[in-house]
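Below: protein 1.
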Amino acid sequence: MIPTFVIFLREGIEASMIVAILLSYLSRVHQRKHFRDVWLGVAAAMVLVLGGGFGAFFLIKQYEGSNVQTYFETATYVLAAAVLTGMTYWMHKHARTMAKELQARSDLALSKGTRWSLGVLSFQAVGREGLETMVFTLAIVFASSRQAATPVHGNLLLVGAALGLLVALALAYAMYKLGAKLNLGKFFRVLGIILTFFAAGLLADAVENIEQLGWLRLGDHVMWNSSGLVRESSNFGDVLHSLLGYAERPTIMQAIVWVGYVSFSIVMFVALSRDHATRRVRHEQRALDSGRGRRRHARQQGVH
């Protein structure tokens, strides 16, 4: 429940931001007649994502218990971790310029004079978020085998997703209709840190699958057995496994991959934060110098 809540909250906020930016810009340039095109693009993206997600899940269920399922699950874990990493760092660098980029693309679409251009723009933007959500959800379902295996736990995944989406829509409404302020940079940084541990757990699950297939023998020695303390099949163990990649019998290679990924991500976060702070200081210094220059020029003009 917790992983799907976090994923749908983050992706829901980002998708809502994209739609809100497009609609507010169209309203500002007196092009509200194109609202319908934006919503059609959003609807088409959601249909494609939902169809693809359900199709992929039920297709792989046909191979349940076979190596084909293990291959697909492993690929999904690796893909989800890679996309999650890329999107987290991309948002960290581009959150401040996203609105300008979307507005520029909207101007280009409007200049073409075709109704479907804005629909394609919203389809691409929202569809990307939807595909990311689909990959992450499939990874969560596979990683939470016990949750997905029973109606109660399967429903908890749906409840988490629904709650995350509802909270995201409520925040988006509050921000763009009621004037509430949310520090989006800090918001995405906090969720990025949480999802870093989730991605590390997915990579550890991928290593476990590869070891079970017999493809990796290096570091496959089990370090400990904590099933007496927290069983992986218990409710609490299932949550820890889904969110952090907890394993009751972890191997050396799983631990190396988990610790290595988390350490790398923390170093990257710190480096990006310092770079962002440095750029902000330089920008403020340039603005200050420019203001001083204008005032000096004005004084000189006054003297003459």
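Below: protein 2.
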Amino acid sequence: MNIISRLFAPRTETRSTPPTSWDHLAGNAGDDLAVTPPLAENMSAVFAAVQIISETVASLPLLVYREDDDGVRTATRQHPVARIFAGDANDWQTSNEWLETMTAHCLLRGNAYAEIIRDGRGAPIQVIPIHPDSVTVVQIPQTLRIRYDVTTPHRGTRRLLPEEVLHLKDRSDDGIMGKSRLHRARETFQTAMAVERFAGSTFRNGAALSGVVTHPDQIGPEAAKTLRESIESLYRGSSNAGRIGVFEEGMSWTALSVSPEDAQMLESRRFSVEQIARMFRIPPPVLGDLSNGSYSNVTELGRWFATHTIRPWLVKWERTIERALLTTDGRRLHNVEFDMDELLRGDMLARFQSYRIAREIGVYNANELRGFERQNPRTDDEADTYLSPMNMQSEQTGAPKE
């Protein structure tokens, strides 16, 4: 696509990103309680959910495999994509930081964008993240081609072509734009934010001795004001909770407020955590809610988290990277894959028991097992030999059974 096509493109249909924080502040979003990513991350459950998914994805190594005609895959470190994810994604971010940023963008906003910088041969050498709020996706009705209009304060508005952008999408309704979970489950997040605001207001403004002070005599407005300010200065706020009140001149105290427990505020906050965990497909114990956790179920839920929470994100990432960074011919010969071994590693006893079984039935040799444990290979010939049980030797050698 040349510069003439960019400048004189046909009339387009623009699909904008969801309302930004400025839209909500200006009253353009139409929500009673705006659910924007910055406000949503003020809730500890949302922050923890985004953090644990993005950090876990970013911590796993990404490998590029080359597959030959016989279906044998070999990891290659010399491929341009492998060099990006083994080192720095751009001049100011490591690949780990880049993956964490992009995954967080997609979790909170439904889309994550990065500009692809290529060398003279067309090979990718850098991927530069673009904030989703500054991107508008444009589709040309006649050709259905996609454009990305990027507006930044220091560079103005630029148009990028599909081959210049890596676009990671959360679940989409039209295949063009991902839709954020904050937008899909707006009522759930609004309720959780309202509960948090109520709790914050309670702890910020509630006095430990909340009620009515009764004086046996009639006092004037000034005396009542002074008495109220004196009591608030002594007992108001969470730092003064539990202090003992002493009243003189026959005054008495009548408690009026309902405690948070009686108002089921704590239960509401716990339910909000469960709802948010459900939106991000995270088991509550993994999110830090151990109210119903035990050693056995937390261990199993950790495996569930790896399989049902992290694995879908890894597959989404793998296909997106292949589509954006590999050519059509490159995708026939190469594929990218995250290594989940570190995430699924059991304790030492479980690992070594499985190693023994795999070694005895000839699945791995000694050096391959040492590689799993990050140990240097042995130099003797037996280290690369595969064992074969006596009752399986004829099958492995191809000899006929007796």
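The radius of gyration is 30 Å.
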